[in-house]
Each structure stands twice: as structure tokens, then as C-alpha cells.
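Hi W.,

Here's what went into the run:
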Amino acid sequence: MFVLSKFSDLIRVKPQDFNKSTSDALEDEINTKYANKVVQNVGLCICLYDIHTIDEGLIKPGDGAVYIKVEFRLIVFRPFVGEILEGWISSCSEDGIRVKMEFFDDVFIPKEYLFEGSVFVPKEQAWVWRTEDNELYMDTNEKIRFRIEEEQFHDLLPRIAPSNPNLKPDEASEYSANQIPPYALIGSCQSDGVGLISWWE
Amino acid sequence: MKVENSRDKLLTCFEVFQHLKETKSKHRKSIVGIEQPMLRAENVETIVLELTGYLQKSPTFNQTEEGIVEFMINMGKFGLEKAELLQIINIAPTSLVTLFSLVEECDQRYTEEQTLEMIDIIRLTLGVKENIEPEEDVVVEESNN
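Here's what came out:
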């Protein structure tokens, strides 16, 4: 589920942070820059794990800050294809099941990847797995186990704030909600042992 | 920014959880010598809080370093792949069917006694909660028949 990724970066330490020790200041800067952000083809960065090397600081004319080249490792959320993960169903739709994991909500299980014999019941807004002698419901907020089938990275352009100042707040939030996630996972529920945890225990 | 190696090492949830706990309680000495709790940016606090919340609900919460070391020593004889061991530690399966979903071709590679022994090792070392045990026994019996 988690990996360590090695990065090198030129970190800018602001003059007001000069009272901190170099490693503390770098830790704060690295965390602020990377935590809870998706790096293309790397994954969702959680936070700094350790710093390997710190080069000499450089200064630039006209800038009070110091620039330091650092090699460090980050904890990154990047499950491998085939890995089994656990989450909670956040919503069901005709197309499939959306799963949330608290810190990461862009997991989707399309209907093609559900158990054979699963149908969507619009009245209940839930998927039902019909076996020979049983009906198993997949309701929202149930704990679900799924296998990772695919990972999708989307390189997004910087988000432009809606230029229309007359836009109502809820319209603005809708605007940002429609954005494609930069990192999304496609899961499946097709083999024994996956699906709702309560089924198998 | 340069990505030197996007997969340097694999981490278990337990290691991540330990790291989060350590950084949370970290105090810093400023140059003047006063110790104070670390102040972090909002995005750091968000992800740390959410991830801690998630991990607290997983088996990770009850695991100990000694338990995992013991697990690794005991499981050594089965020759499982690294990725399989990693997933077993993260999920701590207590039923055969869950274990089978984590270990590839489990029924061909291992005999029934071996898989049952694995479940026993998992129960003993990976901080499995006691309250789900009665149900587990039913599952084990069913698969025996």
C-alpha cells in the first residue's frame, strides 16, 4: 500500500525560518510542498520519511532566502496492481461502486469488475450480488475489500479560479468537484475473499 | 524536483503508522533552546489526521514490532513472496478464504495443514482482535468438510 520514493529537489528556505536548524526547516518546507499532493506516476505523497543528503546552501542576488539541494525519501500511497485493500463504500450508482479510504477517495469499482450476477437496485441505491441461494447487499458505508486492477494518472493543468465573481459559492464548489482526480484507482470484486468483509468472516 | 526512484522500498502500514505517531509527538528545540511542539502546515495535518484515522481502524493499530518480527521468523519456512507477506501483515487475515485471496495459488502451493498453521501464526502475532474468533472457527470447519 505504501512505498518510499526517493526525490531530490532544490528547497527554498525562507529567511524567517533561519532560526530553525537546517534539517527542521527543510523538513517543514518539504512537507508543505509535498504532503497530501499527487506526483505524476509516483502516487499520493503522505509526508517526509528521512533526509539523505543536504548540500551547501546557495543564495541568489536579490533574494533573502537560501536554496538547498536535498535528497530525501517520502512515504507515498501507491498500491501495486493486484494488491488487496480495504475501504468503505461511499456511493453506488448504475456504473459501479465508489469506495472511500478516508485519506484517499478516488477508488472506483466499475460494474464489469463486480461479481457475476450482481445487479443494481435503484430503489435501494445499492448493488446486490445474487448467488444461487442468497442475496448479498453492498450498501453504503459497508466495509469492502477489493483488488487493484488499474491505476490512472491525469496530468492536470493548474486550477484556474472561476473568473466570474458573481458565481455563487455552491456553483464554485461544483466547479472544483467536476475536476478529474489526478490519481485514481480502479478496483475489482470478482474473486473469493474480496467484497464486503462481513461476507467472509 | 526530480524523482530518483519512485519505488525505493515497500512499507507496511505498521511502519507508516509508527512514523506518523513519532512525528506527531515530536518536540523541537529552537535555537534559543526552548522546546515546543512542532507546527505544521495545514495540508500535512490533514493527511496525517486522515491517515491515522484510517490506520486506527485496521489491524495495524494492535500490532507490535515484536509481533511482526516473530511473524516473519515463523513464516520464513513457507517461502512466501515479499508482496504476499506485506499484504498479510497489512490485512491480517483470520479466515482461510481471505488468506487464499492474498496468496497466489495458495491451494496448490501449500497443504491444508500449512495454511491452517499460517492462520494460527497470524492470530498469535499480528494483533488480531479476539472478538471475531467464534465466527472464524465456523469458517475453518466449513472448509474442512
